[in-house]
Amino acid sequence: MSVEERRAHLIEAAIGLAEKKGVAGVTTRDVAQAAGVSLGVVHYCFENKDALMTELVKALSMELRDSVDANETVWQNVESGKEALQKLVRGGLELMWLNIEATPERQLLTYETTTYALREGEQTPKKLAIAREQYAFNDSTLADVLDHARDATATEWSVSLETLSRFTLNVIDGVVLRWLVDNDSEAVRAQLDLLSEMLAGYAK
């Protein structure tokens, strides 16, 4: 394997372990064993556990981003105007939701990585950077989707893209966490309808 392939293999092994035992319970030795490599290989690819957790967070975030980007049909034959924008945003949210619904363990893991970083960050500021990087990446992903939707429908946002993407991420965070509690997918889709309507209200 190349170094990048080895890193991806180790990240996937770490994700599998963290889904079963939580982030705090995972060690680099565990990851080495799960991946079938020596501990030295893990430390060659990642300086320490925090570096591995940072890449784990990025991998989880990229999965959600790719769930929207991978299906080009939602971006085809798009009309202009606010109504078209709402329909397009709702289509993107649905693609994202299908990925989330199929991977509940990974969604729970995203919350665990955040709380792990916040708890440990009091003693080790570098750990706090894990959570901040996670949210910055997700903000950027949503900003790209919203900007693409604006461009495709010949509309403009009446508030800053940064504010809009942050708001959208906050809502999705709450929706997914509630779904992990009550497993009510029908309620989620109603909330995503409402979210797309709210977002379209900030377009002109």
TrEMBL record:
Residues 4-64 form the HTH tetR-type domain. The keyword Transmembrane helix does not apply. Residues 27-46 bind DNA. PROSITE patterns: HTH_TETR_2 (PS50977). Keywords: DNA-binding. It holds the Pfam family TetR_N. The keyword Translocase does not apply. This is TetR/AcrR family transcriptional regulator.
